[in-house]
């Protein structure tokens, strides 16, 4: 039972938590994180944890970075807020837009600012619809996403998300959003099918969906280069080339959701580079500011921008934008964060450390409860099973990962339970000794779990 005066009890009283069993939470209370430094966060009881998830796939440069606090303070004292509506702007938004367009792996023409990954993807849907209207193709509005893709939680972006928990109880997905095959070879590959054959089948499934719906009705396809919140699903290397060939054939826009992959996660600046993806629209957030403040953006190429610009006087300006879009303090922090990523060569560091990280995670494959280990760069997951051959886990679904997550956290490492998977996505500043601690704590947690099964 909680002390009614403790911070935990107050939190339970006043704070309805995301993705949390509310009744169970009333009994146990949250872990209250009080401070962070580098790879670590500390709770109000003084327990220190390695944040092996970079706080929801976000904090690239590590916690407690003074340069980011200073950048925020300087900007807040100079211009605390101004908007970017109706021909107004401010220097941080202009500089950040310029920086992002210059960094993009393919030629982009404009940045459009939003405040979260969900808002960026929601805005993408509006922009794509607006463009189709501008082109005189009002029937070309459908968007294809993928089963287990994660693109956010607003009504529209949750519709793009391909996970049941984000749909059921909300009467989603909304009309015009479709979900195609998840490129998870280990789960979805057929007996005797090679990875390449599987990738071809994913592309064929996509083409069949386009044909069935009518190619003239499909406006865009969205995907994360590597799926994150669906369980860190790494596609076959050839997958994206095959998908892009189909999209080209039917003149369908490609949207890369770089919210997790962007800014170094896969060992290159963008996940698009790792897989040779040439998107028309990219959405970025999270590591853009290392989540010191909320900010996100869409990067759009001329194929998207020009029709919108041509038509904006005729069909009305793009009637969409948030008060805080491109907030000057968040933009100043993002600029400083990107400068740190470059100065400290964190993307190169991610690439250098990736083999060590992947090998260390890979060493868990021999554990009796581990069905698959997967990953790329500094992102990875293990999928838990009770029967390796049948690839089945304990019922109810997710029970094993939830328990393992708790045991590993008690061993001082924060991971994330996603279905029957445990995900790992450490800050880009991670070093070998942290990797060792993460993997040791995970193995110990899995051993403890094994004794209870
Ligand atoms: N896209 C991806 C790939 C994400 O991982 C997330 C968040 N996990 C989102 C979009 C949504 O971002 P937000 O939580 O900032 O709305």
UniProtKB/TrEMBL annotation:
Keywords: Aminotransferase, Pyridoxal phosphate, Transferase
Molecular function GO labels: transaminase activity
Signal sequence, renumbered to the chain: none
Cofactor: pyridoxal 5'-phosphate
PROSITE patterns in the record: AA_TRANSFER_CLASS_3
Pfam short name (any one): Aminotran_3
Assigned protein family: Belongs to the class-III pyridoxal-phosphate-dependent aminotransferase family.
NCBIfam families linked to this entry: PRK06105.1 (NF004767), PRK07480.1 (NF005682)
Identification of the protein by name: Aspartate aminotransferase family protein
Source organism per UniProt: Jiella mangrovi
